[in-house]
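User: Just a sanity check before I run the rest of the batch. Below are the structure tokens for the first item. I only need the designed sequence back.
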């Protein structure tokens, strides 16, 4: 799917990140979060669904002259971290300005830290804490085994969060290519720690000022096993509504970015879910 939420498990990010984790990516139910810990999915994805599919599937044809074989390229794709920082700088920076230093968390399917670019690096979480405006900005990219998409029911996740009053709003939309786009608004404490929690309005009202933040996350999960989350955390100085800095359409644009959806990450399946 820190973010809701299989992208963050598959979405760590809101059910306690993912995915959104990160987006997750983070995971949708307590047992799932315990199993995958922080990361799969992160998440949730970048440019209209159809455009994203075209961008991934279409290449630039090579001109063939005099029967010569088409030229091939051995150029390596840029590192995932480089792509994510570039996309975040353009998407968040347009509204926030100076983002500050990037903070990175790169993990395996079980949440164990690994080096960026490692073969088992499955969930990448990029965070910024701007000097003013949002409490935190997260962008996460994760991979998951495509068969796991059916296991982690996002619609059920939204229903659960709403019934437990752990989300102010939660919606899931199926895109034309079969990808799932989830948008969640909730209250969370422990931002920037290893133990963020989703809270009800009543729980937040009983906390000292500054202990909780609003979070709005857009998470994309694709049929081919990619999860991208984009999230903004804002001060919970008002419990009626958050003062957002990044427009919702901008978060959607980040989650749907085709360069993030094409990132090279691991796709190891999540372990069996247990109640331990």
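Assistant: Here's the designed sequence for the first item:
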């Amino acid at each position: 799917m820190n973010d809701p939420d299989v992208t963050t498990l598959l979405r760590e990010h809101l059910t306690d990140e993912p995915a959104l984790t990160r987006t997750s990516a983070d995971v949708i139910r307590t047992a799932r979060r315990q199993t995958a810990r922080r990361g799969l999915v992160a998440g949730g994805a970048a440019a209209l669904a159809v455009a994203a599919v075209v961008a991934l599937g279409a290449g630039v044809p090579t001109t063939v002259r005099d029967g010569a074989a088409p030229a091939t390229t051995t150029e390596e794709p840029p590192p995932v971290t480089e792509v994510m920082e570039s996309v975040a700088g353009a998407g968040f920076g347009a509204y926030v300005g100076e983002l500050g230093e990037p903070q990175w968390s790169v993990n395996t399917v079980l949440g164990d830290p690994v080096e960026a670019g490692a073969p088992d690096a499955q969930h990448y979480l990029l965070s910024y804490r701007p000097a003013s405006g949002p409490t935190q900005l997260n962008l996460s990219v994760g991979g998951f085994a495509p068969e796991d998409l059916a296991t982690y029911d996002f619609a059920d996740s939204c229903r659960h969060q709403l019934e437990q009053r752990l989300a102010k709003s939660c919606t899931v939309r199926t895109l034309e290519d079969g990808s799932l786009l989830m948008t969640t608004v909730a209250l969370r404490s422990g931002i920037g720690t290893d133990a963020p929690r989703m809270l009800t309005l009543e729980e937040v009202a009983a906390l000292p000022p500054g202990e909780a933040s609003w979070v709005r996350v857009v998470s994309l999960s694709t049929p081919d096993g990619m999860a991208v989350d984009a999230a903004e955390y804002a001060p919970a100085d008002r419990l009626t509504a958050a003062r957002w800095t990044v427009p919702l359409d901008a978060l959607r644009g980040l989650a749907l970015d085709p360069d993030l959806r094409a990132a090279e990450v691991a796709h190891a399946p999540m372990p069996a879910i247990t109640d331990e």
